[in-house]
Amino acid sequence: MNIFYGTGVAMVTPFHADGQIDYDGLRNLIEHLIDGGVEYLVSLGTTGESATLSEAERKQVWAFTAEVVNKRVGLVAGIGGNNTHEVVEQIKSFDIDGYDAILSASPHYNKPTQEGIYQHYKAIALNSKLPIILYNVPSRTGSTVSAETTVRLAKEFKNIIGIKEASGNFDLFNQLMRDKPEGFLFISGDDPVTLPMMALGGVGAISVIGNALPRQLSDMVRLLLNNDYKGAHAAHFDLIEFTRLMFTEGSPAGVKTALKQLGICGDTVRLPLVQVSEKTADAIATELKKLAPVAVKA
């Protein structure tokens, strides 16, 4: 089965209290996720706070992650931005050793037309040695990759293999699933609606909550891949409140709080992000004890 069928996790980047990268914490997280049964990891997507890492830090994190993973699961690098030339140069110079694909969010802030989005991804596809997974996340970018643009890219560039969809737009999903070429991967990028997206034909998820609960999330995704919707419904309902809490005060602050409570890494985020309030942290702890009672640290 394709390595991108199943659960991918958009990994957080652990930091020490002084804001420096916590490589021991990152190692702990990688082992936690692999032990939790996920199919692949995403290093330095937006959940990894890539926007606040320097170029040197990003290269160090990518190299460290590939070394620790050691090809035990699939591995994807998040490389995107709103300067097409700069993104292309990053991709051309990227050390692909240990990596299976690149996840690239559509350009933020500029609000390009659909033709601009198409030309942006065309430039990436023509310069990448690795397969490309598109990423549509209008809540962060300020623009939407339409179904028509996604299908156009999927048909014209064989190395554009799928899309992480986080628009929440089911009209777009319906059109995309109807018109996409066979084999093009439709991946949930929005934890609350992974189940209905997979019911439409999605092949899995690139998840935030999976950082904390990889076993629970990947078990649910496998149930869906096996068309066991009754079992998946129960798992989905169990995760609803925890999922809501992960985004109540922004991501990845919520899931980093859960990871701290699990003893995997700290909850430090880099400004302009801040840690969650004590009230939300307490609510996360209460919910986490229901879902992973043995794992939660006192």
From TrEMBL:
Keyword Transmembrane recorded: no
Localization per record: Cytoplasm
Short name of any one Pfam family annotated for the protein: DHDPS
Keyword Amino-acid biosynthesis among UniProt keywords: yes
Alphabetical keyword list: Amino-acid biosynthesis, Cytoplasm, Diaminopimelate biosynthesis, Lyase, Lysine biosynthesis, Schiff base
Entry superkingdom: Bacteria
GO cellular component: cytosol
First-tier enzyme category under EC: lyase
Site (Part of a proton relay during catalysis): 46, 109
GO aspect biological process, one term: lysine biosynthetic process via diaminopimelate
Annotated pyruvate binding sites: 47, 206
Catalytic activity: L-aspartate 4-semialdehyde + pyruvate = (2S,4S)-4-hydroxy-2,3,4,5-tetrahydrodipicolinate + H2O + H(+)
SMART domains: DHDPS
Catalytic residues (UniProt): 135, 164
Cited function: Catalyzes the condensation of (S)-aspartate-beta-semialdehyde [(S)-ASA] and pyruvate to 4-hydroxy-tetrahydrodipicolinate (HTPA).
Summary of subunit composition and partner proteins: Homotetramer; dimer of dimers.
Family: Belongs to the DapA family.
Designated name of the protein: 4-hydroxy-tetrahydrodipicolinate synthase
Species per Swiss-Prot/TrEMBL record: Mucilaginibacter rubeus
Native organism taxonomy: Bacteria, Pseudomonadati, Bacteroidota, Sphingobacteriia, Sphingobacteriales
